[in-house]
Amino acid sequence: MPYLTEDGLRRLLVGIVDTFPTGQMEFDTVSVSAWRGSRWDPIGRRYGAVFRFGFDDPATLADWHPRLRYVDEAPMNDSPVLMDRAPATTRRLYRLLNLFPGFRRSSRILRFGF
Questions:
Q1: Which residues touch 1 (CB under 8 Å, ≥6 apart)?
Q2: Which of 73, 101, 83 is nearest to 1 (CA)?
Q3: Which residues of the chain have pLDDT under 70?
Q4: Residue 55 contacts by C-beta under 8 Å, 6 or more apart in sequence?
């Protein structure tokens, strides 16, 4: 989702909620600082991966539609899948960086219901 603009994300979420009577959505997102700092990420720049939107309080997305509700979140930076599959140097770096709360919450998996 960080690759969408705020308007694009809003239209997508509202469209899904308006189309289906009930359901859940899970998607990744980034914090405002990760979004703004992404333009200097050498890996993202190499592949043309540019974050276009980020936010710090995921519950604010629930305000976009009366039926949308924030359920919970999980940090991506220490997910078991990442830690199992990433190279050892990446795992060590993420363990170190995860000691800083700002980094730990910089990318998350969010769950919403409607």
A1: 9, 27, 28, 29, 53
A2: 73
A3: 42-43
A4: 29, 31, 32, 61
